[in-house]
Structures are given as C-alpha cells and as structure tokens.
Write a structure and sequence with these properties.
Number of strands: 5
Order of helices and strands: HEHEEHEE
Distance between the termini: 20 Å
Strand order of the largest sheet: 1-2-3-5-4
Largest sheet: 5 strands, mixed
Helix content: 25-40%
Length: 141
C-alpha cells in the first residue's frame, strides 16, 4: 500500500495529530531518536500483502489483500500505571476507524477494513501502538 494514499486522509480526518502524520522513514527516525517528539503522532507503514492463486484461466486473475499499519505514539507520562496512554490510544482508534474504514484509497481498491491492533512498546514516556488495516484489489493479466 502506498502511504501517499493514506497519509493525506489521516491528516484531513484526524485533527488530534495536528498534521503529525508521516511514513516509514519518519517512523524509523522517531523510533530511533533519543529526542522528544511531539505527540500524538502517526506513521503509515506497509505491512505486506497476501495473494490468492489465480482464479481464472487462460489469463491471470489474483486477489491481493494489501495490508498497512498506522503506528501511533502517545504520551504515557500522566500516570504511573499507563492508563492515560491506553485511553488516548482508544480515542485515536475511534478516529482512525472513522477516517479509514470503508474508505477507498483509489478506484482500483476495495474499501479499507480494520484488522486489529497491538502495543509495540511502552515505557514511562511513550506508548507505541500499531493499528492494522487491509484493502483488496484484483490483479488481471
């Protein structure tokens, strides 16, 4: 999935990020930096694809499920137990689901589906969470 199809949608639809939405390179820089980054922030990263066997002969017709993640980082400093960070993630999930589910990133893609999520890292300063989405398109050759 091209992040350039998703990033503008999140920027336009999820005001909580204040345009702090980047791609893979921005995620790598933020995750490996010792510097404080403005939060909340989001990063769109390709996760891979699942491809079906050809469903037609003599040509090739394959269904491709294109998966991508939206990694968010929030502050986790409000309380020792981390409940505030988890609540921020829950609020951001609602906003991301509204912005992305059923959205068609191009005329070739089917509507985006939410696939789940998981915490990637948590410490006293930050909570990193990855939301996973997929969209389908059909390859005809």
């Amino acid at each position: 999935m091209k992040p350039s199809l998703i990033i503008p949608r999140i920027r336009a639809q999820v005001s909580a990020f204040s345009n702090r939405v980047g791609g893979t390179a921005a995620f790598e820089a933020a995750a490996s930096s010792n510097e404080d980054i403005a939060v909340p922030a989001a990063f769109v990263v390709p996760l891979g694809e699942e491809v079906s066997d050809s469903v037609s002969a003599p040509g090739v017709v394959q269904i491709i499920d294109d998966r991508f993640g939206v990694i968010v980082v929030v502050s986790n400093t409000a309380d020792e137990g981390g409940a505030d960070g988890a609540e921020q993630v829950d609020d951001l999930r609602a906003s991301l689901l509204t912005a992305l589910t059923a959205y068609r990133p191009s005329v070739a893609h089917h509507p985006i589906r939410y696939m789940g999520g998981q915490h990637l890292a948590i410490d006293r300063a930050r909570l990193w969470h990855q939301f996973e989405f997929a969209t389908r398109y059909i390859l005809k050759g």
